[in-house]
Fold this protein.
Amino acid sequence: MPETPDMPETSEGILDWLEQAGRRPEGGLRFIDRAEKATWFGWAEVRARALAACGGLQALGVERGDRVALVFPTGIDFFTAFFGALLAGAVPVPLYPPARLGRTEEYLRRTARMLERSGARLVLAESRVCRKLGGAVEPALGCRALTDLPLGTARPVQAFPADLALIQFSSGTTVDPKPVALSHRAVAAQAEILASFWPDTTELRQSCVSWLPLYHDMGLIGCVFPALARDAGLTLFAPELFVARPALWLRTLSRYRATISPAPNFAYSLCLTRISDAEMEGVDLSGWQTALNGAESISPAVLRAFCNRFASWGFRPEAMTPVYGLSEAALAVTFSDLGQPFQVTRFDREELAREGRARASAEGREIVSVGRPVPGFRLRIVDSGGHDLPAGAVGRVWIQGPSLMEGYLGDPEGTERALRDGWLDTGDLGFLHDGELYLAGRAKDAVILRGRNHAPEEIERAVDEVSGLRAGSVVAVSWLPEDAPGEVLALFVEATREATPEELAALPDACREAVLGATGLAVDRLEVLTPGALPRTSSGKLRRGETLRLYLAGELALLEPAASLLMGALA
Amino acid sequence: MSDEVILAGIGEVARVHLGWEGIVTPELRLIEDLRLDSIRLLTLAAEVENRFRVLLDEGDEAGIETVGDLVAVVRGKLDA
């Protein structure tokens, strides 16, 4: 069982760090806008603003343990609200702001559902978002802008290590949102683990650039808290700016000589397709020591292509660091060795697919290693009965460490399924090879695209109204095909026996439209199946993992006419 | 700037940044017809802003469903 030395136990938490921070001139937050203009807030300034918000929240009646939802874009207001709520003893619940040109009704429905599940007593948001949310959500203390808080004297509340520090949603969905509850102890332990990877020397002060959303664990816990713990500088810009202009990421890294920056696989892929050489004029990536790559399946092809393309601007391949983590562990579980080339190994396809055994083979399928457990974490690979499997056998990844969640808020059954005797069943499938973890699919039903988790049910329900489909006979799955730049989303639908040729012909387009409209996700592969083709359990529940396995093995009964029509449409 | 010029500009954005190969007409719906997922919607918004040097806020964006709606919002911004 791979294990790394324990981290020393600490009683300090994020609020202690916030109080102590601001002693170094380079400690604080820098926000970059779309014109690449920077605005700077030292940690002392961040705290002063948070104290004012704390006073306002307390005057409003916010009490210890109350959940306060935060809906802000990347900017100082997010931090004022976040730390203000924490200082008042409340539990922040960061939610995502409305997407550009997206469907408002969909957004409101989703947000309302997450607010309900989190039990938030108050929503803090920009006033334009408050106007949008008004009516759709009615928390006890309302929806307010920071400027609408009453004036009050802050009486900061001392947080205990076991108190909740944060609730983050592992997937934003209307169907089954999972509010992950993290204690101050867990959040601080995770921040210390991460901070330990970036020791400062007299020659080098490590600093981070991030455009990751602040409602996402890799953005908030992965970047903000370690920067705070180390009293370091952190340069932030909004995710929508990254998507619109990926070069902004690399330019910002270069301009501020940052040493660390994390992103999911899709971001590295986007840099390859959406950055022109002209935009890289004057950029120097030689100072980028650690390019963390996590939060979704990692494509070996993308890793190599990124290293090759950006070597011309000084990017060093050993900076590329595949990692693995999940919200339920606060974030990081395994890290590849820093400063070493990333590890890709080929494994025999047949044995992997048919027998769940990983045997290195020169002609096999490439999988990226995500490294070893971070300090304080242990991991096991177990069978469905919880028994340890030998190295090389594919099984469920179970982990133990100092930053596991307390549970899913308000969901004792879900918590019991995930946490057993101090071990967290990640729901991921993987195996150990030379002491390193390789991921090989998922046992849990989750669609993971662009670093974000989606409940398959939500995608499946989107096509409920499409005619010609058998009700409740739809499966959504995502996986990383060999040589693909990222996970693809597939939708398997069963046609009814009565479906007319016209209905069958219209099915693929109708399904794609419905999914896009309801979820904002594009379906990469759509397969129409004969009635009864989807595998089910004895109680009639759909078996998503088995559906994918059959499909990849070519054993799923596709409805030929519709399939050929679809191929015609694609050709 | 006329609607035709704005429409042509949006068509250019769709071709260059979204890989759209067909003709862009005002009736096309962004999500259902142009098949834009959330990342591509964002790209469209940002590239349209860059091209016409306007800033769209959420109020402007709220009612946009078709290419024609987007043309009207951009024109409104340019005229203001």
